[in-house]
Amino acid sequence: MTRPSDLPTQDFTGRTALVTGAASGLGRAMAVALARAGADLVLFDLDDAGSRALAEELSAAHGVRTAACAGSVADEVDVARACAAAGALTGRLDIVMNNAGIGANHPSLDLAPALWRRAIDVNLTGVFLVAQAAGRVMAEQGGGVIVNTASMYGVVAAPERAAYCAAKAGVVALTKVLAIEWAARGIRVNAIGPGYVETALTGRMAAEGRLDLEALRARVPAGRLGTPEEMAAVALFLASDAAAYITGQTLVADGGWTAYGYL
């Protein structure tokens, strides 16, 4: 009989994590959760001031080693610098929260090619570049875990989100491919598929009239939007030893949105 003390715990002491899009939203929640669990952190974001402030805050609060690295996931040089920062911090890279992304809501007939390319560059190519660079490091050291941020809109579709849905569906497929290729190298690759989450971004979009939060809450069977902390908890589970036999999966956390077949 398995005893509670025999079960894997979410103790990340001695592990080094890279979090992309770390300065705000889901990335910030992931960084906070990892620091609380004892992980050393490299925070990678275009917002240099925000990531540096968070790095200092987490180091002071939890006694973990932290570093901040400014750059874009769509830039190979920036991505290489972020992975190198992990090596400089602890000599290891054990976990990647491959989270950075942007929104892209436009009617398809009016979607400019530049906007399409930007969404694909950040939301799909950026995920690949980070995973590839981290995967090379992990292969050399004998293993690691990558958790990509997809979306429930990588599993189901919605109007006026052609670029976003295409990119996130690509992340779901990419996650499977990398998991299959890298399993023998000790690297697990999974994804989370968040539904609508209460963040500063959704609040701003609601204020601009681009989102109707009440209508969204009414559509979710759970009757509310998710929180960044709930998404971070799912990501940490996938990164933990409790998920040691899980790879190539996308775990959707959407309050029942994709399961509900009626409008």
UniProtKB/TrEMBL annotation:
<dbReference type="InterPro" id="IPR002347">
    <property type="entry name" value="SDR_fam"/>
</dbReference>
<dbReference type="GO" id="GO:0016616">
    <property type="term" value="F:oxidoreductase activity, acting on the CH-OH group of donors, NAD or NADP as acceptor"/>
</dbReference>
<protein>
    <submittedName>
        <fullName>SDR family oxidoreductase</fullName>
    </submittedName>
</protein>
<dbReference type="InterPro" id="IPR036291">
    <property type="entry name" value="NAD(P)-bd_dom_sf"/>
</dbReference>
<comment type="similarity">
    <text>Belongs to the short-chain dehydrogenases/reductases (SDR) family.</text>
</comment>
<dbReference type="InterPro" id="IPR020904">
    <property type="entry name" value="Sc_DH/Rdtase_CS"/>
</dbReference>
<dbReference type="Pfam" id="PF13561">
    <property type="entry name" value="adh_short_C2"/>
</dbReference>
